[in-house]
Amino acid sequence: MEAEAADAPPGGVESALSCFSFNQDCTSLAIGTKAGYKLFSLSSVEQLDQVHGSNEIPDVYIVERLFSSSLVVVVSHTKPRQMNVYHFKKGTEICNYSYSSNILSIRLNRQRLLVCLEESIYIHNIKDMKLLKTLLDIPANPTGLCALSINHSNSYLAYPGSLTSGEIVLYDGNSLKTVCTIAAHEGTLAAIAFNASGSKLASASEKGTVIRVFSVPDGQKLYEFRRGMKRYVTISSLVFSMDSQFLCASSNTETVHIFKLEQVTNSRPEETSTWSGYMGKMFMAATNYLPTQVSDMMHQDRAFATARLNFSGQRNICTLSTIQKLPRLLVASSNGHLYIYNLDPQDGGECVLIKTHSLLGSGTTEENKENDLRPSLPQSYAATVARPSASSASTVPGYSEDGGALRGEVIPEHEFATGPVCLDDENEFPPIILCRGNQKGKTKQS
């Protein structure tokens, strides 16, 4: 859910917006600018609260926050091969790593951190930042397209498997093995996204007319949605709602589409008792005699709801979130604004714009307000809370880029997360403390 702004809005160096991303549970928005980066809380419609801002690293083009924790990952155009991990509450750098080429994207959950280069993907254990695997035998990926399940119990990774077709490779980030390949589209991939549980994967090709949803891990097609027929578009973001009932797609056009994932059933209710039901059944039967492309179009579902933007041709990302107990559609744009729409989950239709916020202005900065206003997380996240360790305080050695101990360095044990990583709470320590690394072939490869 990250985008690099293609066209910066007018303004000085201090105000140019270079990238933007929603965090994993859509409760926070991060933006990168020529001056640094900012983090916002998405707990209110009327007010956009700035949680944190930093000007220490200029010209930021990647910024990712781990859920609502204090861990943030930043990459700058000044050092495009270096990843920096910060604890922004403490104002300290946790670690940094350098790679063999420019970093194109970063994905993270509570178990894994992925660094995607054009021709390789690095998989780190987020607890100690040890490099677990380097995927080298992958097709060139110039846009850094990849997706990581936010459910750390499976940590599925998806990335393009071909330069010429829409093949997706599904990889298990925990067992570090390839699960399957999915022939998703005829054309090259433009967007892929997992749902919150990691049980579904959505994809779109560069044509942008058809969006498909597959089951994970077996790769069976579950849904097929048609975004449009008249023109090809560039899909800039795909995102599921947290309950997986809706799928949202934004593009370089002025329309955002929201699709409803109806329950898949093997049997259809009998509808021939009425004239309309009889005609509908005859019409669907007739599609069996039509050309395949026409028949497929007849069976594809259309958008459940849409939202109209007052601009087109600009990079944007969307998300579906619950704010103040109501479903909302949020669209962040490279024009420097966040748009909030009401979404009717029952009847769909046209979403109503209710608020526009400037991302480059002087927003309200309230470091502690985020915890008070942030809505409670779904039960699935609460189940991931790590139990506190009852062991007495001790020390463990530090570590280097390959996981070995750093001579002479000792880190207090309470600074490490034990068991499943839990960073829901702002007061939790991040899982990693100190590392410096240069990732150039010092790990297992595949």
TrEMBL record:
The protein's UniProt keywords, in alphabetical order, are: Autophagy, Cytoplasm, Cytoplasmic vesicle, Cytoskeleton, Endosome, Golgi apparatus, Lipid-binding, Membrane, Repeat, WD repeat
Keyword field contains Chaperone:
no
Topology with regard to the membrane?
Peripheral membrane protein
Report the principal subcellular site.
Answer: cytoplasm
Q: Which InterPro entries match?
A: PROPPIN (IPR048720), WD40/YVTN_repeat-like_dom_sf (IPR015943), WD40_repeat_dom_sf (IPR036322), WD40_rpt (IPR001680)
Any keyword Membrane? yes
Q: Which domain of life is it from?
A: Eukaryota
The terms under GO molecular function for this entry are:
nuclear androgen receptor binding; nuclear estrogen receptor binding; phosphatidylinositol-3,5-bisphosphate binding; phosphatidylinositol-3-phosphate binding; protein-macromolecule adaptor activity; signaling receptor binding
A GO-annotated cellular component: clathrin-coated vesicle
Q: Where is this region: Disordered?
A: 386-406
A single Gene Ontology biological process assigned to it is:
vesicle targeting, trans-Golgi to endosome
- Compartments (UniProt record): Cytoplasm, Cytoskeleton; Cytoplasmic vesicle, Clathrin-coated vesicle; Endosome; Golgi apparatus, trans-Golgi network
UniProt-listed SUPFAM superfamilies: WD40 repeat-like
Name the family: Belongs to the WD repeat PROPPIN family.
Assembly: Interacts with androgen receptor (AR) and the estrogen receptors ESR1 and ESR2. Interacts with WIPI2. Interacts with WDR45. Interacts with ATG16L1. May interact with NUDC.
Put simply, this protein is called WD repeat domain phosphoinositide-interacting protein 1
Specify the species. Papio anubis (Olive baboon)
**Gene this chain is encoded by:** WIPI1
